[in-house]
Amino acid sequence: MTKRGREFVILVVATAFALALPIGATAQSDTRPDRAVFLSNAPGLQTSLRPIARPASLPRGPHARIAAVTGAKFAPGRSSIRPMIRPSGIVRTKPVLASSAGATRSISAVTRGNEKRICGSRSIMGYKMSPIPGKLYGCGVAQPVRVTSVDGVWLTQPATMDCTTAKALNSWVQDGVKPAVRGLGGGVASLKVIAHYSCRTRNNKRGAKISEHGKGRAIDIAAINLKNGQSLSVLRDWRKRTTGKVMRVLHATACGPFRTVLGPNADRYHQDHFHLDTSQRGGKSYCR
Description:
- By secondary structure, the chain is α+β, with helices and mostly antiparallel strands.
- It has 2 domains: about 5-50, no CATH class; about 100-285, no CATH class.
- It has helices at about 5-20, 65-70, 100-110, 165-180, 235, 245-255, and strands at about 115, 125-130, 130-135, 140, 145-150, 155-160, 190-195, 220-225, 230-235, 260, 275, 285.
- Strand 1 (about 115) and strand 2 form a beta hairpin.
- The radius of gyration is 38 Å and the shape is elongated.
């Protein structure tokens, strides 16, 4: 083959190789073995295509791009992006449990130490609040408190009310709830509160009178949670042969500390809870 023919073949090979490279790629950035060749004999191409040596500190594997973005540091030879030293200031927290006993423990962890004795009672715990103005005429509480526990029994949510209602709740737990469930599940752990202060009409009916909830005089209890994790539910246990008797004792003992006590026998609005309030009924109680 003539010298001119050899130069032509070399030129064809070089052109084919250049066309095979991706757009924007350079000979030095391509690290595939089949491209690591030399074209030192090609006219005008005197650059080696051997891959540049990989820095020792550069991480390998799929996390390399994450490392470049986050700035994570690695030990030589490691591919994990997990920090070698745990950053200070990170504190593990316990999950809040939804079960009755778990709910009691989580509330205790959050509020214990911050709450105070309120309403002049050693067994009512919570916080004093600023006066609550009513959004509707007849609503509002002049001296509200936020109750977290009564007689050592936690509420599943802090409840806003006045001190008269807080004292009634405390008396019911002492004289009614605890004796009624003493032999069940290790005793009472918490009360499941589903409603307390709320500026609204009775049963949320348009045009009706303002509910006692809107005056800070009412609380709704849906269940008594026991220390073994079980609960006595108004909806589930009121009509049961085994636990219905206990539920009726709880209902009856509330009538006294509270002026109004409504349960499943009252109407369709109270099938799943006891409504307890301290409304002024001319000295008379209404319990149904």
